[in-house]
Design goal:
The chain is of the alpha/beta class. Helix content is 36%, strand content 24%. It folds into 3 domains: 127 residues, Rossmann fold, CATH 3.40.50.12160; 234 residues, pyruvate-formate lyase- activating enzyme, CATH 3.80.30; 54 residues, Beta Barrel (OB fold (Dihydrolipoamide Acetyltransferase, E2P)), CATH 2.40.50. Strands 2-1-3-4-5-6 form a 6-stranded parallel sheet, sandwiched between helices. It has a 5-stranded mixed barrel with strand order 17-18-19-21-20. The chain has a 3-stranded parallel sheet with strand order 7-10-13. β17 and β18 form a beta hairpin. α10 runs parallel beside α12 and α13 runs parallel beside α14. The mean pLDDT is 93. It is an enzyme of class 2 (transferase). Its EC number is 2.8.4.3.
C-alpha cells in the first residue's frame, strides 16, 4: 500500500480541503503517514493569498529536491499556487524535474489516477491540471480526525467580489454554493463522529444562495435550518463574512441565534481599512460609517459579542490621513482581536497597477503602531474578564491542562485534565499572555 504525506499551508478552507484530499486518497487505497521520510507521495497544499504564505510553501517545495534524490517518490503541488504560479513553478522546481504534478483546487478528484500514471511513467514530464471552476466536492464526506469535537464544513467555494488586492477569484474561481442538502448531510456525518462545534467556511459565507423549487435559500435560511434540524449541535460558527452582505435583517437573525446560545457570540468581519478613499480603491463596496453602524447594531442586540477583524496597512496611495482613519476606527470599535498585515502585492490583481506604492519602511512603521494599539485593546478586554464566570466547553487536553472555548469563541485554559466535550462553569482568575486562565466552580 502506497503512503502519502500532506503538508497544508494557509486558511481553514485549505485545512478543510486537505480532509477532502485525504478522503479521496484513502478511498482509492492509499494510506496517510505523518512521517515524510516513509511517504511514497508528498503533497504540498498551498496558499497564495499572501506573499508570506506563498514563500513558506515555495521554501518547502524546493527543499524536497533532496528527498527525491534519496528515494523514488512523487511530489505534488496542490491548491492556489498551482493555479496562480504555474509559470514560476515550471521555471523553477519543475525544470529541475522533482515536482511531478500540479493540481488546482478543483482537480483533487483526479489525484489517484494521476499518481498511478506518474508511477507508471516516472521519468515523464510533470502533469499540470487546473480544471473547471465548478467543483464543490458536495458528494464527498471528509476524512475525519477522531480526536476533538470541532468540525469544518465548506458551504461555498470561490469569490465574486474582486477586491482589488485579492487573488482569490483568480486562483479559486468564481463563487458557487453547495446545495443545502449536501451541507446538512455533512453536518449530520460530523455530528455522528462527535463533532459538536461546527464552523461553516467560505470566502464570503454571507453571500450564500441555493435554489430549491424556484426559491432562493440564503444564509439566514441556512443557519436557521441547521440549528432547527440538529438539536445536538452545541455551537455553530462561520467564516468569513463580507460587510456589504451583512444586512440589518441578517444581523437580527444572527443576534437571535447568538442569544439562544446556538451561535458563538463572535463575528469576524474584515474591515481592511478605516479610510473611505482606500475602501473605494480596494473595491470593498461599503463605507466606514456603514461598517460602524452594523457593528453598533449587533452590539446593541448582543452586548457581550466579540468582534474580530482583518486590517491591511500600506495599501497603494495610503496617506497618513488614510492610515489615521484606520487607527481611529480600531479605537472607536474596540475589536477583541485583529489580524493585521502589510499590503502584499498579488499577481492578477488591480491593486498592482495603483500607484504610488508605499515603502516597506512606512508599511512596517504603520503596522507596528497598529499592532501596539490593538494589543492594548485586547489586553484591556481580557482583563475585564477576570473574576467573572463563564461556561466553557472543553476541546482539547494538553499535558495536565484543558483547553476550551467560551461562548464568545475565545480560548481559555483550565489547569487540570477535564473531559473533552463536557461543559463546565469557570471563573477567570488571571490572564497568561493573551489567554484567560480559569478554575472550575461548577460542573
Amino acid at each position: 500500500m502506497r503512503k502519502y504525506f500532506i503538508k497544508t499551508y494557509g486558511c481553514q478552507m485549505n485545512l478543510a480541503d486537505s480532509l477532502i484530499v485525504s478522503k479521496i486518497l484513502n478511498d482509492a487505497g492509499f494510506e496517510k503517514t505523518e512521517n515524510i521520510k516513509e511517504a511514497d507521495i508528498v503533497l504540498i497544499l498551498t496558499c497564495a493569498v499572501r506573499e508570506h504564505a506563498e514563500k513558506r510553501a515555495l521554501g518547502q517545495i524546493f527543499s524536497l529536491g533532496s528527498l527525491k534524490k534519496r528515494k523514488k517518490c512523487l511530489i505534488g503541488v496542490l491548491g492556489c499556487m498551482a493555479r496562480g504560479l504555474k509559470e514560476k513553478l515550471t521555471e523553477g522546481c519543475l525544470k529541475e524535474n522533482f515536482v511531478d504534478f500540479l493540481l488546482g483546487p478543483d482537480a483533487y478528484r483526479k489525484l489517484p489516477a494521476i499518481i498511478e500514471e506518474k508511477f507508471k511513467n516516472y521519468e515523464n514530464k510533470p502533469i499540470t491540471i487546473i480544471e473547471e471552476e465548478k467543483e464543490t466536492y458536495c458528494d464527498i464526506l471528509p476524512e475525519i480526525n477522531q480526536e476533538g469535537i470541532e468540525g469544518f464544513v465548506t458551504i461555498m467555494r470561490g469569490c465574486d467580489n474582486f477586491c482589488s488586492y485579492c487573488i482569490v477569484p483568480y486562483v479559486r474561481g468564481r463563487e458557487r454554493a453547495r446545495p443545502i442538502s449536501s451541507i446538512l448531510q455533512e453536518i449530520d456525518f460530523l455530528l455522528s463522529k462527535g463533532k459538536i462545534l461546527i464552523t461553516l467556511l467560505g470566502q464570503n459565507v454571507l453571500g450564500y444562495k441555493d435554489k430549491e423549487n424556484d426559491k432562493i435559500l440564503d444564509f439566514s435560511y441556512l443557519l436557521t435550518t441547521i440549528i432547527e434540524k440538529f438539536p445536538n449541535l452545541r455551537y455553530l460558527h462561520f467564516l468569513t463574512s463580507h460587510p456589504k452582505d451583512l444586512s440589518f435583517e441578517l444581523i437580527e437573525k444572527i443576534a437571535q441565534l447568538m442569544n439562544l446560545g446556538k451561535l458563538f457570540k463572535e463575528l469576524h468581519l474584515p474591515l481592511q481599512s478605516g479610510s473611505n478613499r482606500i475602501l473605494r480603491l480596494m473595491n470593498r463596496k461599503y463605507t466606514r460609517e456603514e461598517y460602524y453602524e452594523k457593528i453598533k447594531y449587533l452590539k446593541e442586540l448582543v452586548p457581550d459579542v466579540s468582534i474580530t477583524t482583518d486590517l491591511i496597512v500600506g495599501f497603494p496611495t495610503e496617506t497618513e490621513e488614510d492610515y489615521e482613519a484606520t487607527f481611529d476606527m480600531v479605537k472607536k470599535i474596540g475589536f477583541d482581536f485583529a489580524y493585521m498585515f502589510k499590503y502584499s502585492e498579488r499577481p492578477y490583481t488591480k491593486a498592482r497597477n495603483i500607484f504610488p506604492k508605499i515603502s516597506e519602511e512606512i508599511k512596517q512603521e504603520r503596522l507596528e503602531k497598529l499592532i501596539n494599539l490593538q494589543n492594548e485593546i485586547t489586553k484591556r478586554k481580557n482583563e475585564e474578564m477576570i473574576n467573572k464566570n463563564y461556561p466553557i466547553i472543553i476541546t482539547k487536553n494538553q499535558n495536565n491542562e484543558s483547553i476550551g472555548r467560551l461562548p464568545n469563541n475565545k480560548l481559555a485554559i483550565v489547569k487540570e485534565k477535564l473531559s473533552i466535550g463536557k461543559e463546565y462553569i469557570i471563573k477567570i482568575i488571571k490572564i497568561d499572555g493573551w489567554t484567560p486562565i480559569g478554575e472550575i466552580i461548577k460542573e
